[in-house]
Amino acid sequence: MKIFNKKKRNLKKKRTTYPNIYFNTFENNFFFLNNNEKTKSLFSDNEISTTKYTRYNFIFKNLFEQFKKYTNIYFVIVSVITLIPEVSPLDPSTTILPLGLIVGLTAIKEAYEDIKRYRADKSSNFKEYLIYQPPKPILKPLSSTTPLPQQQQRQQQQQQQQQQQQQQQQQQQENDEIEPSKFKLIKSKNINVGDIIKIDNNQSIPADIILLSSSSLSDGVCFVETSELDGESNLKIFKSSNETHLKFKNNISVDLNESKQEQQFIKLKGNIQCEFPNNNLYKFKGILNLENDNENNNNIEEDLKTTTTTTTTTTTTTISLSEKQLLLRGSTLRNTEFIYGIVVYCGADTKLSLNQKSPPSKYSTVEKMISKSVLGIFIFKMVLVIISTIVGTLVTERTTNKSWYLWINEEPDSIGLVIVKTFFAYFAYLSFLVPMSLLITLEIVKVSQGGFMQFDLLMSYKEKQYRKQLLQYEQNQNNENENQNNGDLELQQQQQQQQQQQQQQQQQQQQQQQQQKQFIKSISSTSISKSISKDNLKSEILKEDSSASGRENKIVHKYMTVKNSNLNDELALVKYIFSDKTGTLTENKMIFKKCSIGGKIYQSPNESQLLNEIKNKSSMELEEIVSEGGETIDQKFVKEFLINMTTCHSAVSELDQDGIAIYQSPSPDEISLLNCSKLNQFIFKERNNGEIKIQILKKEKTFKLLALMDFTSERRRMSVVLKDIETNKIYLYSKGADSVMMSRLKQDNNNNNNNNNNNNNNNNNNNNNNNNNNNNNNNNNNNNNNNNNNNNQLIIEKTTQHIKEFSNEGLRTLILAMKEIDSDQFNQWFEKYNSILNSIENREEQIEELNNQLENDLTLLGCTAIEDKLQDGVPETIEFLLNSNIKIWIITGDKQETAINIGYSCKLLSHSNQLFIINSNSRDQCEQQLNNIINNLNEIENNNNNNNNNNNNNNNNNNNNNNNNNNNNNNNNNNNNNNFSLVIDGESLIFIFLEFENKFLSIAKKCHSVICCRATPIQKSLIVKMVKKDTKEVCLSIGDGANDVSMIQEANIGIGIFGNEGSQASRASDYSLLRFRHLSRLITIHGRYSMIRNAACIRYSFYKNMTFFFIQFLFSIHSGWSSQTLFDDAIITSFNTVITAIPPYFMALFEKDVNERVLEKNPHLFLEVQNGKQFQYLTIARSVLGGLYQSVVMYFGLYLLFLDDNILNQYGKIGGLAIMGSYCASFSVISILLQAALDIKYWNFIVHIGIWGSILLYIVIALITNSMLPSMPQSYQVFNFSLSLLQFYLMVIIMIFISLIPTFTSKYIKQQFYPSQSQLLQENYILNKRKRRN
User: Fold this and answer.
1) Which of 530, 764, 1031, 1070 has the fewest CB atoms inside 10 Å of its own CB, making it the most exposed?
2) CB-CB contact of 1006 with 544 (8 Å)
3) Are 1111 and 1126 in contact (CB under 8 A)?
4) Nearest Cα to 129, choosing from 435, 363, 341?
5) Pair 1322, 1155: CB distance under 8 Å
6) Are 532 and 669 in contact (CB under 8 A)?
7) The pTM is what?
8) How do residues 794-804 score in pLDDT, each as one tens digit?
9) Do the beta carbons of residue 684 and residue 663 sit within 8 Å?
10) CA distance 87 to 79
11) CA geometry: angle at 857 spanning 855 and 858, to 5°?
């Protein structure tokens, strides 16, 4: 979406820093308010316009856009030539009407799309929001000179009168009925930077605003849904700064009514300093300067009266702002009654607008070839024009000017003028050799093909149901045929009984499901604090896991979407597929399968195994287990492990319609962790007012949240600093990837130092400050903690081994760790943290360095093992695509072991294939591994070539033609795939990109599958770019998350998956699918059909124009090269736009060379279109040569038939040009339409109407145009008279036979003696289908 804003463009040229944003404050005796012109001029307005045109410039701009195309310019030149009667042999209508029709249709299409954009903009710009309107101040006129005394007196009088009027009005009104300021409804387009805005629940946010406070007066937290922004449906938490929240909390009392609350905003004064608008959705830096009055006036009206006469000293409070306080345009407020905020970015400056870039322009291979083919036709036409000009000039000088019977009374033109006239006459005469309607036909066709894709039930949410219906239909047909043949009626009765039994079973299942729902509702009505049985709680969690992210299963996306139909035929040329793993190949629905705690594996944590660990190893009551003392080592580890899962997250707890608590989180992993802890009765309750409340068994426990270190793709970990309110101890809980967390754990050396410090207590006073802190911590720890420290290294070794085991099973792992922090150490850290927050420059880097100081020397608790199940049909789809000669690369951020096991489970890797692994830590090691693999490949290929040569010599003597075809295809597959697979990690890719691209690609080209693990988002796009640039092949990328956008846009074709990680990938893609398994159907069926259909449409378009209009050139031989037309102008005008417009469109819409069920069972058939043989320059040349042959046959055949036979016209005279033109036009048009009938392989009712209806349409047009008065006297009733002659019908039949017999013969020979595999399989399918019917 492009936003056209002149102010925005001017601002970018003038300013380099973002101006300060003032609200409710005086600055140089000037009040910066909403209606301030100075404020409006500094910032962009909030009106958004995504339209391409306006009502005033639509005609001119649309015409300018259309006539940038070379074909339109070409036909405009031709139209201008036809307007000159002395030059043009054609009537102007022959070119102007078709060109006007094409331009008009395109303009209507553009207008329709722009109107939809305008309506969407209008609905957004005219939404109303509550904007705070402060009391209008009394402004002094700003001038360079001092005011005159008389002016001062007038101003004072006006001020006094205004004050008296205000006092009288206030005394007359009761209970603040008329307030000096209030919130007013303002349209979104009129919102300005600096406005104080109120957003209600479920209301979209119209601009980027800083959160001041929310209806949650306890902590200033609000919940926002960003699905329109980044596609994530999970709610996100935003929190106002403590200073603004406390200011609102103190000033806005719950006891005050709404009007009183709104009056408190007059006390809010200050300005905001923030960074220049940028497109980073997840980063923001700013400073809020709040002015605090030293005087405390309770009466607002008194403050208002004295503002113009009294000056008060103020102090400024500086508040750091981050992305936690920035609510972005496009998001929606949820589960929060209302919020207050200050607008910082409007319109074109919002992050949403800056991120909405137009996708890169992608053109298919067919489109590029069309442009070159049209250029070739144009060159051929110019050659004919030059030949005609030379010959025509010579004939004019030598013959025409000397022929007395031509009655030329005027003086002959000069030779120069003759050349010019002849050139432009033939330029217009032969203009229709270039197909005018081809581009508009293809555009309409591709949109129609996209509609077929979008409503394909086998790529929709009804896929499984539709497949069952197809199978039942086939079975019913088979059974009916058997019953008819055997005459057995009992089978039909049995089938009916079986169907009735199935219906009864389905009804019983529905009743059971309803009973289960009622049972769950009864469970949810009970308090969690009461004793809950394990089975009931488990059923509650399983229901929660069944939804995508804790919500009910609601179908959001029902069908796939096509966003770039220009690439329909490009799908048939795909040779490389680059795929993400999580959410693309997998469901992205995480299930907690196993965990390792304290070096011990727990196989079934979802079955309350962790809770049983606590129960079985203690004789105490459950309430006593919550306390710190009396715990075994295993209990301590399990308890801290569960507390880590329950507190270290960014999830939100809410209730669904059934009253069941569910969790919302941007990460599905966090939801699975919370569900597991919930099953073990460690329940996350809420995060409120800087506190995290959890429930351990039957007792609630509260932690004060001191610091939060969010998870990012760079950090790959998350940490929270909590203070136990009961014990006042401070803990840090952390979780993250093992590659990041292992280096931050407390190692054996630290343990030895701690033990030495414990044994040598007398030397503690001589240690440095760090050792003193460690000794204080050791004195506070229990004996169990000392034992844990002694066993820490052993736990790390066991956990590392468990991580490898989990990875080998294809499970995702996370490391959980913790440590206790001394209060003095944390206070020092927190002071540095607050000082960094007040700076704007390099804030993130400084905070990250500070976080690293705290996130070290951690105690390992254990690791989690989460299963991300493969989507249904993924292994079968990958196997099908590999057999279709498509190489597949999986690029993921998972560990190498996990990626390899996923590769085996999805059939990308096979144990029969040789696997090469590149896992290097240095440049030299990477080069050595590459060289070793290249040497191994060369040796293997040499041995295979020798064996294949011997085997091929033996096989060629025994196999027939069909087997030879199969063997050739199989050999091609083997030669291309070579049964090799490659695995490489992200660190090795760094060295690959720097120096070893050629070596790496030489290996990758010989592998049928490649897995890149530990890859970053930027590496994904670099891999696609590298392969696309080197191989020059069509590359397809598919993903589901925002980190896949760069990869999707870099590829020739981008596919997005509607998943749980948002819809950014689907929005940036060319096609969006519901499931990965639909990819095989999109490529091998829809892609194949699109290529065959578009190629047939293009070939036919070139053929028909060459056939019909080359006859005009041949007629010049007998017309003295005078550029006289043979055909009637009405036939020339309607040939492309009416008569022959329908057949190519229907060919490109319905053509099928092979039934889709045959394609689904034979993936090797994709090779027939993958190499692009369906549409090549050679195929276009064949079509053009075929058209030239038919033109020569039609014209000279007509000439020979007319040579010795004098045909009389309706006036009894010898038929001349009109009779000859009607004959030639008739059998030319009918032959061209019958040629389409020979090319079509798939016939249906609509195609029949299109072909035979076009022939009938020609006859109707010819009859009408020959009966109109403008046709008198030359061609009046000529066609009607021709239809009465037997000779006409005989000539049409003979000429059609002579013209089409070569095409028919070549097709017959090819199909009978040199059939392709697709033809053989299609014939078998038809024969089997007929057998079933018989």
Assistant:
1) 530
2) no
3) yes
4) 341
5) yes
6) no
7) 0.71
8) 888 899 999 88
9) yes
10) 12
11) 75
